[in-house]
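Private note to self, pasted from the team thread so I don't lose it. Backbone tokens:
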């Protein structure tokens, strides 16, 4: 690819104009993995984390983050975020977060899904850091997207 869509002819950053695009239904799903020690996993499972309900706070934070994506990423479009689902699962190694965002707009929601998963992961860390400061985000990645000109895509298993 010789032309960069987010640079003008002088090489300056620009927001791509999507106003001529026809709105369509689009969705994206991202995953984040928070690596936790056995003691943190145990506290998550038995509800003894001193700060409260970690999963509930992280879920709400992820939903709010999806709606704030253009505030954080300067070239992201302000679009209608029509649905956000953030699921969290405590596993033997920590917490797996899956965020799915949907819209009926002119551009995709991959960045909104990634932002939701990332911010939910940060909230897990914030809630458990008093128990173990080594808790970390092990992975954040896009795992699927649907709709738009490029159609559907799924990450390799």
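Design output:
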């Amino acid at each position: 690819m010789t032309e960069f869509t987010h640079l003008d002819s002088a090489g300056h950053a620009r927001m791509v104009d999507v106003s001529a695009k026809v709105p369509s239904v689009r969705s994206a799903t991202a995953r984040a993995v928070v690596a936790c020690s056995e003691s943190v996993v145990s506290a998550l499972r038995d509800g003894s984390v001193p700060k409260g309900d970690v999963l509930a706070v992280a879920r709400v934070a992820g939903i709010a983050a999806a709606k704030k994506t253009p505030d954080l990423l300067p070239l992201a479009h302000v679009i209608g975020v029509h649905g956000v689902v953030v699921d969290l699962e405590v596993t033997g190694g920590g917490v797996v977060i899956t965020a799915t965002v949907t819209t009926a707009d002119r551009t995709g929601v991959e960045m909104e899904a990634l932002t939701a998963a990332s911010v939910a992961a940060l909230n897990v860390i914030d809630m458990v850091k008093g128990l173990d400061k080594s808790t970390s985000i092990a992975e954040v990645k896009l795992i699927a997207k649907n709709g738009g000109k490029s159609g559907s895509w799924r990450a390799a298993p």
